[in-house]
Amino acid sequence: MSATLFSEESKDIKPIKIKDGEYIYVPNFYKKELADKYLARLLSDIHWKQESMKMYGKEIPFPRLTAWYGDQDKPYSFSGITLQPHPWSPGLLKVKNDIEPIAGVSFNSVLLNRYRDGSDSISWHTDAEKELGKNPVIASVNFGAERKFQLKHIETKERIDIVLQHGSLLIMQGELQHYWKHQIPKSKRVKEERVNLTFRIIK
């Protein structure tokens, strides 16, 4: 197996505790060769779409492409839109099975984001929709261009920056979604694509 899936090492992965939350970051969860294969497959096989949201009476397109996959009875609503899931692909199921031993939960859905270059982004937000439950565990798997992931505490404004590498795994858990916003800012220096898979549990 070419993935660094932590047979013995997994017990040594410990959450990084921060004020009002915690996260796990594994920078080289997948080795480059396998990460390259996943990226190519995701770019070619996923049903990508540019969604839009209504703001000030206008339809504003999201600055990225998205897709929603998972169990067929698990739609997802955010930013005024509701996504109906595509059925799991074999590749997405493989990633899901790889990360669940680290996350300690069984995911039933995944939101995919495709950032075509550094001009694509996602602004400050929390993943605190009611269908995600009280303290959601959200696992983010990253392929392609490195992008800066930023956390900002809602009350103290403390900020944490994490560079998400090709093949990395980030898990947000505990009370983090109640107290911390997160974003992927624009970056003029990034010219390559990035695909991000955020696995979730829809209640």
UniProtKB/TrEMBL annotation:
InterPro entries linked: AlkB-like, AlkB-like_sf, ALKBH3, Oxoglu/Fe-dep_dioxygenase_dom
A Pfam entry, by short name: 2OG-FeII_Oxy_2
Cleavable signal peptide: none
Fe2OG dioxygenase domain span: 106-203
Keywords linked to the UniProt accession: Dioxygenase, Oxidoreductase
Domain of life: Bacteria
Statement: the UniProt record of this protein carries the keyword Secreted: no
PANTHER family (UniProt xref): ALPHA-KETOGLUTARATE-DEPENDENT DIOXYGENASE ALKB HOMOLOG 3
Record protein name field: Alpha-ketoglutarate-dependent dioxygenase AlkB family protein
Protein species of origin: Mesonia sediminis
